[in-house]
Amino acid sequence: MSARPAGTPAAGLRPFLPSDTPTLASILSAAIFELTSEDYDPDQQDGWAAAAASDEEALAKRLASSLTLVAERDGEVVGFIALADNKLIDLLYVHPKVAGKGVAALLCDAIERLAAARGATSLIADASDTALGFFQKRGYVARQRNSVLRGAVWLGDTTVEKQLGEPAEG
């Protein structure tokens, strides 16, 4: 576990509840618009956010069909992670106000442990250009570059993979 800055309260984790969906959709959109502008232009951000968060019913089904953990700090939801088929980190987003404060690492640590306990030997993720460095620092290795259509725009991302049980580089 990484140390958190002094005075920063620890985040706690809990399972996803359907009632979390509007908050998680808001976090997802905020993260896209506030954290990815160095890597994606406004049209790409619009297409990404619309595809991922505009249909809350579809998002709720996607989250419910995965092992989804929610991070809370001081009673406020600040991030989430979804593991699909015990092999794919399908979604990982944190609120911009907690970016870089260990919440994503906490979520990733937990999902990696749970996946390993359920028999997974590796995990994959399609990391945005913004998140690629985060995953690489955790020991994920780039496997392929992708172009994905979101709405009417193309975005680049990278499929990364981590063998579970190996120490993260750091």
From TrEMBL:
SUPFAM superfamilies cross-referenced by the UniProt entry: Acyl-CoA N-acyltransferases (Nat) (SSF55729)
Keywords: Acyltransferase, Transferase
The protein's enzyme class: transferase
Entry keyword annotation includes Transferase: yes
GO molecular function: acyltransferase activity
Residues in N-acetyltransferase domain copies: 19-160
Entry's EC annotation: 2.3.1.-
Entry keyword Transferase: yes
CDD domains for the chain: NAT_SF
Gene3D superfamilies: 3.40.630.30
Protein name (Swiss-Prot/TrEMBL): GNAT family N-acetyltransferase
Taxon lineage: Bacteria, Pseudomonadati, Pseudomonadota, Alphaproteobacteria, Hyphomicrobiales
